[in-house]
Amino acid sequence: MTTPANDAPGQCVTCGAPVAGKFCAACGEKRPGPDDYRLEHFADEAVESFTHADGKVFRSFWLLLSKPGRLTADYLRGRRKPYLKPLALFLVANTVFFLALPLLGWNTLTTPLQIHLHNELYSPLARAVFERRFAAGTEPAADYVREFNHHGALLAKSLVIVMVPLFALLVWACFARTRRHYLEHVVFALHFYAFWLLYLIASLGLTNGALRLIVAAGGRPSDMAIDNTISLLGLGIVTCFLYCAVRAVYGGTRRASLAKALILAASVVAIVQVYRCFLFFVTYWTA
Prior knowledge:
This protein is an all-alpha fold and 287 residues long. It folds into 2 domains: 1-37, no CATH class; 52-286, no CATH class. It contains 10 helices and 2 strands, in the order ββαααααααααα. The protein has a two-stranded antiparallel sheet. The longest helix has 35 residues, at 182-216.
């Protein structure tokens, strides 16, 4: 079998357009040549693909964390080549989060059955639903609890994305006057939740370290004190990120941007409740 010379005129095998050089001007397809089937060429392509993808991941996350909103602004104005696409960035952050979660020892976003039934705003509804399967006032069997928690932890890895369109709706409501398309707000939401998942990893890791130091010094902080401290710090950090991101993407005065950042940061807590409720019912119906 012979292959065409890269400098001879021909037709692109992918789109059919005329090609006079190494690459098709219409679709970018590279014309095959004799060197394409050498082992060295395969090795060079593998190294290039890996380093190119790795460079995109590092560049995207660095910009996401160092300059909030800049990644979204670049994407919306068409500068997309150097970075991961918004959904891909979110999925990478989501994967990293759920890989790290067992090492951190927290159940954030996985939500065991007992938390669903007793510690959430929707717990009365959850208990009422459970009374249809179990006698009122009784606890479910241990085997069922284990199965529910295992199934819920698996579902959580994919259902986390439910929070993105909900947050995007609130962003759209806050910036309706900008007349942007809803999917532009989805891009903003995907980038925010990629940051949020990475923030949770850092926050939970630092909390573990701080608790060890406090316990070693003889302290015994209550669960409520821990939750309140984490929540207040989280609200402050998320508000700062959103303020910078809002200024970079949507513009506006500092006062208006701060007010909207506070509204969006507070909504994150409410959206987590909606997500956990959704996770409960999906797990309940499918476990």
